[in-house]
Design a protein that fits this description.
- The protein is mostly beta strands.
- The protein is built from no helices and 22 strands.
Amino acid sequence: RIYSSGWFSRVYYRLEGEHPFDLVFTVEVKESNTLNLGIHFDSNDMAAILANTTIRLNTSLNSLFDITARLSRDPYLMVDYSINKGIFYKGGISYKISSNDLSIYERGSLSYNLGVTRNALNLVFSEFYFGNIMLQLKAAMEHFHFYKALRSEFDPRHTEPNDQLYINYLINGVYDNLNRIDFPTSGQYFSFQYSLHTDNFVQLKNEIPLSVLKMNFYKPLPLTQKICITPRINARYVMNDSVPHMYRNLAGGRFDGHYLPQQISVQGSAGMEFLNNMVLLTDVTLYYNFTPKNYLYANINFTADSHHLHHLLEGKSYLGANLGYSYLSVAGPLRVELGYSSLSRRFHPYLSFGHYF
């Protein structure tokens, strides 16, 4: 598979003539400008509307603007400008502003409430594609403005923290050859990210930069034509003792990175919780495709955390389970779930309709 500039909606080839054959490529050029709309409902965030437009610039740089906006309880606006130079290279700059009203729990009880506006400016130095592999090197500037205090219900005297600015350096890698997004039956997915976080380009609070390593891997394994099992491992390790609140480990919720980029989802849990510097999650999902568009599935998960990697076996651990039904409609999947996690210590029902974004 070759990833190029994205200027074509379809590419195929044929052989003509006699040996040695002529290889003829036929392409269908994409529209110069596109507009996409989506809507999603769920029992956590109610309704969300996504609008996206792509503007392709007819220049020798093969550049394009991509603008995406989400209207919801946690809205954001993202503007991306990218340059596609050659078959394998992509670079550019992007800006994203998002607003989040975060509720942080501790073993199922509301502990803190934090309102934050996040401004992120990303400079992608290089992004390479080799078949199913993507490698990316970038720098990022993140500014956090707190409009609501980090306040405990047990201690309401907390005041709003000061605004925070960080300059970060990141390397990302992804290997993805899954055959589909919803309920894949073949392929595998692996991603990693190593990041350095500073407040003056070289240090954090006049000490060494904050180092963070994150990895995620899962692979569907078909047992029969209708039954598939998918094991997953997700981990994040913060390698410093002193960690800013906005880069601490967060676990819980339905999707990775929904509220903050470092969020690790825990199926069956209710709300997010701060965990220690080392977090490891393993889970297994079993699903049964009893008709072409109907699925029953079950998930069992185990989460462990500790202050350091070498103390992981001595840290705390949490078990969870989730049962669900899904119908794959033209407008996106309908999901009905009921879960329980010892992380949040209560049953959590979940209902959604539409593609997640």
